[in-house]
Amino acid sequence: MVKFTSIFVAAVALLAASASAQISTAPIEITADQVLERRDVGPGAIAKRDLLSAAEQKIILDTHNKYRARHGAPPLTWNAQAAQFGNNWIQACQFKHSGGKYGENLAAGYKDFKTGIDAWYNEVSKYNYKRPGFSMATGHFTQVVWKGTKSVGCAKKFCPGSNWTIYICNYDPPGNYQGQYEKNVLPAK
User: Fold this and answer.
1) What is the C-alpha separation between 181 and 189, in angstroms, rounded?
2) Which helix (H) or strand (E) holds 58?
3) Which residues form the signal peptide (predicted)?
4) What is the pLDDT of residues 33-56, one digit of tens each?
5) Rounded CA gap, 117 and 114, in Å?
6) Quick one: pLDDT at residue 34?
7) What is the pLDDT of residue 112?
8) Distance from C-alpha of 166 to C-alpha of 159, rounded to nearest angstrom
């Protein structure tokens, strides 16, 4: 029995040694695209089908920036980290704000991002420039045109239980700060 155990242990050691000789420990460079491609498995996974195409990102930026230009706000750039944050948040299909570090607009029941962003902007008709400040009726609009915001990242998720798609946009730095509306939400030109 001792002889068999010794032979078995020696064989396992030999296999382990040959296996380790074939394993490279050299660092591997991974691009951001490759990281996102592999986030389709495991805990906290981002479903690949929910990530936005370059065309959707362009529509989101173009729509935001068209409205921002009307109000003297600089154009936004795409923020992949904010998009990832939003995508992670909406995976549970709960239509509520995350309370995260970004400014955030949510929409549901729209056919696409453009119509959702249009609806957020259309709150402009209710905004009172003579009494600038936050209102539940205009908070989406003010975040869209907030002059101090520099970037946006968005995501969407179809939720079978409610049969709708949730749209989320996260803004950095966030807007809608009391006392800062006059310099960040300017009248249309």
Assistant:
1) 17
2) helix 54-70
3) 1-21
4) 332 332 333 344 444 445 899 999
5) 5
6) 30
7) 97
8) 7
